[in-house]
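Bump. Still looking for Cytochrome c oxidase subunit 1 structure tokens.
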Amino acid sequence: IMYLIFGIWSGMLGMSMSFIIRIELMNLNNNFNNNMIYYMMITIHAFIMIFFMTMPIIIGSLGNWLLPLMLSSSDLMFPRLNNFSFWLLLPSLMLMILNLFVNNNINTGWTLYPPLINQNLITLNFIIFSLHLNGLSSIFSSINFLSSIFII
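Sorry for the wait, here they are.
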């Protein structure tokens, strides 16, 4: 249930960013003082909706709910690994949100296309480290799911 609550909260955060993007596109003049804030908002919105809403709800929430039911067990094989996997998501999201307030100069889009990331910025390092933490969380969940399937 923690994954579901986290995913819903992240979805509301991403939806609020979507509203800000739509308000910016609705007017002819710029609401932001700098266009880089707008581009950064698009990048962070895409990452939050994909990696912090969709993946925790589908993989974390449904996997932790359906897999023990299918295996007829009370819990997964490694509950502490599952807990560690969830708690890796929180600093990952905080690093992603911190990018909006540190240095608003990254405009690579949600793909992080290599010719566009020839910038030496701390925000780019925060984004990449945040995605690595999110990937570690997914890997730990996958290890827990696979070990539960093969051992139980």
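The mean pLDDT is 86.

Edit: fixed formatting.
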